[in-house]
Amino acid sequence: MINASLSPSSTELVINVLAMVLEQGKPLDRAYSHHFSGLKLAPSEQARITSVTGDILRRLNLYCYLADISTEDIERMGSRLLNAWHMFYELPIPKLQYTLAIDEEDFAKRLASAKEDPALFDGCPEWLDKLGTAQLGEAWPKERAALAQAPKRYLRVNALKTTAADLLSQLAREGVEAREVPGVPSALEVISDAALFRTECFKQGLFEQQDAGSQHVAAAVAAEPGMRVIDACAGAGGKTLAIAAQMQGKGRLLAMDVEQWKLDNLKQRARRAAAHNVETRIIASSKTIKRLKLSADRVLLDVPCSGLGVLKRNPDAKWRDTPERLPVLVALQKEILQSYSRMVKVDGILIYATCSIMPEENRQQVDAFLSANPNFSFIDDETVSVAETGFDGFYLARMKRNQA
Ligand SMILES: C[S@@+](CC[C@H](N)C(=O)[O-])C[C@H]1O[C@@H](n2cnc3c(N)ncnc32)[C@H](O)[C@@H]1O
User: Fold this and answer.
1) Is 304 in the pocket of ligand 1 (CB under 6 A)?
2) Cys-Cys crosslink for 397: which of 177, 308, 366, 392, Cβ 3.0 to 4.6 Å?
3) Is 367 annotated as a binding residue?
4) Which atom of ligand 1 is nearest to the CA of 259?
């Protein structure tokens, strides 16, 4: 994808999106929709812009260092940043009307010294490198390097409507090239640049866009038709819809969250996917949880987390987040685990999950929960490593309730 220079107009768009994210603090997807609306960009050009913007955000500190500018000065110095980015990939520099040129000799010196600093080369802010090293030790550098790579595009075959083989051939008829993903039977990897959401297959609800790691976590719920299942931090329902397919639409699937707009979004997606056994419920207070005491065969707690496993896909988070957020999240996860586990019935299974690879949010939480709750026993756990799988990074643990 990164094999040709951007046009001058696309360069300007990338600078504007970056400035909106980094200087106005807007989420990346909102910055894209703001700047793309009203433009008649070809899907391939739009894909190039998002791919270059993503790459710059994944290694923003590296490109800023090469451009000799600060990460806070993108609006004013954006052309210099984009020049450095083109020089890094040895691409001809776009001919902008106003541009801040970079001295080639100076650039070569900076590049040589950046290569001596692996954390900088992987686009890792200092606070994150310290945290990753403290949490993961020797395993951190390879995860850090993997988090600097572009994410692959995956979709989940909606088993309520189709099969992987049928979807592959229908997508091929619409010009979308995809292939199966070893180890994740519900997933297909999209290998062409197609505009997926414009396809008939999408309109018919034959698939959802979802990372293969997230699908792997949903598979661990192993819900069966007729069960009573609660997805208590359902958000817009990525995992809920996967669970509905496991249940073949039979049984009761309750999707809960503290944000109504996410549940509204979920309802819409569930309709398109024909996931008719999904019910949504807002968590208004602890009473909502209490009323569901000992009621579910499976409870999935996909808790709010640092998101440090999904930085490939959300690279802007690295430049917004601070290390102070982690202890706050860890305390919230602990509270959710303790309180929401009440909904698991005897012999039922609790599935705790995060999109983080940091032990403090993962195994350490589970161990603390198990020692405070001897009525639950550990079944298994797994960290989906970004480096080993190429997927987003996740964690999941399964625990069984043995007594009320
Ligand atoms: C990691 S996201 C869930 C992603 C979702 N399961 C998916 O697969 O698309 C965590 C969710 O927890 C929700 N949340 C935050 N605090 C919560 C709480 N106290 N109880 C329940 N959900 C909460 C957030 O609104 C967010 O939607």
Assistant:
1) yes
2) 366
3) no
4) 25
Does ligand 1 lie within 6 Å of residue 172's CB atom? no
Tell me how far the alpha carbon of residue 307 lies from the centroid of ligand 1, in angstroms: 12
Cβ neighbours of residue 110 closer than 8 Å, sequence gap 6 or more: 65, 66, 68
Atom number of ligand 1 nearest to Cα 354: 1
Does the beta carbon of 257 sit less than 6 angstroms from any atom of ligand 1?
yes
Helix (H, G, I), strand (E, B) or coil at 57: helix
For residue 58, the SS3 value is helix
| ipTM score assigned to the predicted complex | 0.99
**Confidence at residue 100, expressed as pLDDT on a 0 to 100 scale:** 81
Q: Which residues is 280 bridged to in the sheet?
A: 255
User: What separation in angstroms does the CA of 241 have from each of 187, 202, 274, 351?
Assistant: 14, 14, 9, 16
Tens digit of each residue's pLDDT (9 = 90 or more) over 323-369:
999 999 999 999 999 999 999 999 999 999 999 999 999 999 999 99
Give rounded-to-5 percent helix, strand, coil for the chain: 50, 15, 35
Cβ 270 vs Cβ 242: under 8 Å:
no
DSSP state of 151: P
Q: Which residue has the tokens 């270059």?
A: 52
Count of residues making up the chain = 404
Specify the ligand 1 atom closest to the Cα of 262.
Answer: 27
- Whose tokens are 């040895």? That residue is 90
Q: Is 122 annotated as a binding residue?
A: no
DSSP secondary structure letters along 299-367:
EEEE-----TT-TTT-GGGGGT--TTHHHHHHHHHHHHHHHHGGGEEEEEEEEEEES---GGGTHHHHH
Catalytic, 305? Answer no
